[in-house]
Amino acid sequence: MMDPATLLAVLETTLSQADADVVESAITGKDLIKAGALMGAGICMGFGAIGPGIGEGFAAGKACEAIGRAPEEAGLLTRTMLIGQAVSESTGIYSLVVALLMLFVVGV
Amino acid sequence: MEHIGERLIWNYFPFTNIPIPGGGVNVLTIFNTLVVMALLWGMMWLGVRKLTRVPGRAQVILESFVGLFDGLVTSSLEYPTRDQNRKFLPLIASLFMFVCLGNFIGFLPTHYFEEPTADINCTMSLGMMAIAIAIYCGVKAKGAGEFFGELLGPMWHQEDATGFAKLAGKASALFFFPLNVIGEVAKVISISFRLFGNIIGGAIIIVVVSTLTYNTFLPIGLDLFFVFFVGTVQAFVFTMLTLTYIAVAIK
């Protein structure tokens, strides 16, 4: 258990952080940059995922239609679909890289 | 989770205080590259150790692998003779093997095995190598004048135009030349960042999930998808794009 003197000291330290001047100087430009970078990473990833999502879903749907018409070509169609999807994914990957830069380089 | 994105960098030569020129070396990338090369060498040695007319298990695997890539190279390059196509087979097949095994090596759960392809230096150099080989093959197949003349745009080469139309065609190169040069540079960026982003994205997702579950279980399902499936697909895509760049350059 803590002795009363230590407890008082801890309490005083905790309370003293609520001082007006301390609170005012708590947010600096660095914090703003970090907040902006984290928000930017979220926005970047969210909007960057829309295009690849739609594109890959479209490719998968068309591949399903084609497999339905020609089931014996399923292997070739799946392979072609995967390559096309991996290529059309690249814009999403760019936004992932930008988001990672913001998270781990700018926002540190 | 704070160590995400950090890589071990040696700033000095080991056991000395001589600084390494260029700002340091990603030592784990080099180490893992050598490990992957040693593993590939060992696998190839095991496969071709005893070549027989009725092949054993390892020889069948290697033969079907080489046959698959032989078919891919032949169908995309379309050189008239078999030997000309065969010249690209070692490049394409070893590129695939290296990238694929380099993606898989992050599966080993120690800190010393990181994917070499999760380092932008590795993927960027592979991409630059691919584009440089494509340009070299293009120059060799068509000649330097014709190959680099294509960068000047389609309207530079009109023979029957006269007067103002010819002048406008020549002037259009001012627009087309920077566009085509940027297109060539963008190929390097695109092919290398695709591989890098996929691999490091999967690695970060695995680290985040492991941290959220306090490392109580190996995220086997995540490893199966992000390491093995995505790794194979991205290695295949990287190889196919290299092959496509070469095929576009020589035609």
Defining traits:
heterodimer; A: 108 residues; mainly alpha; F1FO ATP Synthase; 6 helices; B: 251 residues; two-stranded antiparallel sheet; 69% helix; globular
Topology:
The complex is a heterodimer of chains A (108) and B (251).
Chain A: H1 4-16, H2 20-24, H3 29-48, H4 50-69, H5 74-88, H6 90-106
Helix pairs in contact in A: 3-6, 4-5
Chain B: E1 9-10, E2 25-26, H1 27-48, H2 57-77, H3 82-86, H4 89-104, H5 120-142, H6 144-149, H7 163-171, H8 173-212, H9 220-250
Antiparallel strand pairs in B: 1-2
Helix pairs in contact in B: 1-2, 1-4, 4-9, 5-8, 5-9, 8-9
Q: For the terminal residues of chain B, how far apart are their CA atoms? A: 49 Å
Number of helices of chain B: 9
Under CATH, the topology of chain A can be stated as F1FO ATP Synthase
The stretches of 5 or more residues of chain B where confidence is low (pLDDT under 50) are: none
Q: How many beta-strand runs of chain B?
A: 2
- From the alpha-carbon coordinates, what is the Rg of chain B to the nearest angstrom? 23 Å
Total domains of chain B, how many?
A: 1
CATH architecture field of chain A: Up-down Bundle
Question: What would you note in describing this structure?
Answer:
- The complex is a heterodimer of chains A (108) and B (251).
- With 108 residues, chain A is mainly alpha-helical.
- Chain A has a single domain (27-106), classed as F1FO ATP Synthase, CATH 1.20.20.
- Chain A is 83% helix and 0% strand.
- In chain A, helix 3 (29-48) runs antiparallel to helix 6 (90-106) and helix 4 runs antiparallel to helix 5.
- The radius of gyration of chain A is 26 Å and the shape is elongated.
- The model of chain A has no long low-confidence stretch (mean pLDDT 84).
- With 251 residues, chain B is mainly alpha-helical.
- In chain B, strands 1-2 form a two-stranded antiparallel sheet.
- In chain B, helix 8 runs antiparallel to helix 9.
- The interface between A and B is medium-sized, with 14 and 17 residues.
